[in-house]
Amino acid sequence: MQSQNISDIIEKYLKSILADAEHVEIRRSEIADLFNVVPSQINYVIKTRFTIQNGYLVESKRGGGGYIRIEKVNLLDDADVLDTLIQVIGDAITQRDAYAVVQSLYEDGVLNRREAQLILVATDRNTLGVDDHDLENSLRARIIVGILNHLRYES
Amino acid sequence: MQSQNISDIIEKYLKSILADAEHVEIRRSEIADLFNVVPSQINYVIKTRFTIQNGYLVESKRGGGGYIRIEKVNLLDDADVLDTLIQVIGDAITQRDAYAVVQSLYEDGVLNRREAQLILVATDRNTLGVDDHDLENSLRARIIVGILNHLRYES
DNA sequence: ATAATGAAAGTCAATATTAGTCAAAGATAA
DNA sequence: TTATCTTTGACTAATATTGACTTTCATTAT
């Protein structure tokens, strides 16, 4: 039984809509009501699960008639995906964001499953095994950026 | 058959579930309650009895709705070879030796060209970019050993 | 036009809910 | 006896939930 927390359930709900549509547009309070959570939890879900690393673009508007719109972007349409990703990663990246990045590359066909797994293992917290978090995140960034740069020349 | 300590009993309990299912997903505190032990004993059981060497993969999540998930995986035939390599590598390896290891894995067909390249990039001196040579060599070892451990099973 | 009002969404920090680590103490086996 | 394995619990870390307060925008009133 997975998804015991509400955030995961809301995530799945939104993604199920995105499976059929290019984008989803919601009213924050409606979704919050639907799942019986406070409105700001919707922001939490979006911030942790619909980032650009995950391949989503989010825009919103406040005030009357406000909305939140989530769009799935195909990174491959962009000629310089890799550049964009490298920029986003910068010089440090958490394991969670790294997972999102690798997952996106897999979904876009840049990496196959095995390659994606290899990268995740190589950059796993436990694999690196350093206790300094900043060092861990910067090593992870260097490894992933190094691989992305390699992929650019290779293809 | 005097495996009467609680760790053994918990181990059997979890394995009896895994006999019928591909994986088990537990809430740590629930299992701890069930057997009247402190939660951290579950970690002990997992760490000592559900290792990758035994063919188990473990993943977990903290926070609300957290869980520990244990999956039984199929160990591959080359597992022995990989074990040997892992031993040889130990806790540090130079870039030169790493190259040799990866090269031989490629020649043995364990890795394809692209995968081999990925690993070499990930463990390259410049990628890691640490000044301390000992740290560099130990990181390289950890990454390669992590990947080798991953290669021991399928999917 | 401008000001006032109300209706959204955003931010942030406090709190809650899990799991992980580690080392000391206790038990068992060699 | 000594080495190894097990049990325990205090402390740490990650993730989720909540709510008070802020900001933005559209509409209505002056």
TrEMBL record, chains A, B:
Gene Ontology biological process terms in this record: regulation of DNA-templated transcription
Positions of the CtsR N-terminal HTH domain: 5-74
Keyword Transcription regulation: yes
Signal peptide (UniProt feature, chain positions): none
UniProt keyword list: DNA-binding, Repressor, Transcription, Transcription regulation
One GO molecular-function entry: DNA binding
Any Pfam family: CtsR_C
Entries under Gene3D superfamilies matching the protein: Transcriptional regulator CtsR, C-terminal domain, Transcriptional regulator CtsR, winged HTH domain
CtsR C-terminal dimerization domain: residues covered: 77-149
Family: Belongs to the CtsR family.
Protein name from the UniProt record: Transcriptional regulator CtsR
Source organism of the structure: Lactiplantibacillus mudanjiangensis
